[in-house]
Amino acid sequence: MARAYNLSAGPATLPLEVLEEAQQELLDYKGTGMSIMEHSHRGKAYMAVHAEAIANTKELLGIGDDYAVLFLQGGASLQFSMIPMNLLGEGQTADYTNSGAWAAKAIKEAKLIGKVNVAADCGKEIPTRVPLASEMNLTDGAAYVHITSNETISGAQWKSFPKTEAPLVCDMSSDILSRPFNTKDFGLIYAGAQKNLAPAGMALVIMRKDLAERVSGSVPTMLKYSTHIENDSMFNTCPCFTIYMYMLVTRWIKKTGLETLYARNVDKAAKLYRAIDSTDFYKGTAVPACRSDMNVTWRLPSEELEAAFVKEAAEAGFSGLKGHRSVGGIRASIYNAFPVEGVDALVSFMKDFEARNG
Ligand SMILES: *Cc1c(COP(=O)(O)O)cnc(C)c1O
Question: For the chain, what percentages of helix, strand and coil (3-state, to nearest 5) are there?
């Protein structure tokens, strides 16, 4: 079997051993005579999966009972709306930082719901970056402060998180569980599953339970965090198979160790940035201090060469290197499950491509 090196931004590569385990159990889950996909979400077999998925998350991030771990549908994109619907009261202001395409989408949705202050804006700058904490123009008594920990398209990442008086709300879709962080610094964290966690189909939400009490009575039941907290993410039929995969992935992260994984991620990214910086042929697109460990972005001297690079790379077994259609260039998404050997092979390919075209 020839597995491609999948450098796609999402849905993204999953750990091989997790895929193999899911394959093993696909037709007959632990002797029950059916797939986990076919089990009732209220039955014993699935409930154990669900409980372990939550327990693994709590253990990995040191989360106490004051936080809820939720599995919601609608991806990270629905969170762009649910957050202001639940947390932004009448007459209040929410502070948002604009660091690029994903932050801009969150801002657009929040403006449909309530009053938004863009506290810092570097969303259109090239080279790309995230704001400095010192640039943030925060509102006194803000409902919350929203940041995007890793801009998946531009390849810019917060290396440390700002300390804010108002609850910090963070879109961690493309770097959650790639590095340790202190959950207590955040009021709410959310992430679409399909980058670092699982197949597509859900958003992971980790939130301070008291924040869910802010919601007004007019918000639809399904869009209230309190509904999902009260029902342990089983108000309606949950995305069982995605949560099962998430449980296997979090088991794999626990086995590997989050610190080990983080060191490996930093090392993988550093190899690619070294390859980019060692020549004028490749040019990184993010400010060095903000370079993402998850999405490495760079340009070649011309769009023709970029197209040739993507095409030849695909022929050599590297899939998904084309930059996002809005910005062009090259993007290598090297999430937790992307292997070190794949990065080494890509660096060799880059050197070889330059030798032939530089
Ligand atoms: C992919 C992504 C999203 C959108 O996720 P969906 O699950 O497709 O809604 C939001 N924010 C960031 C940072 C992302 O990378």
Answer: 40, 15, 40
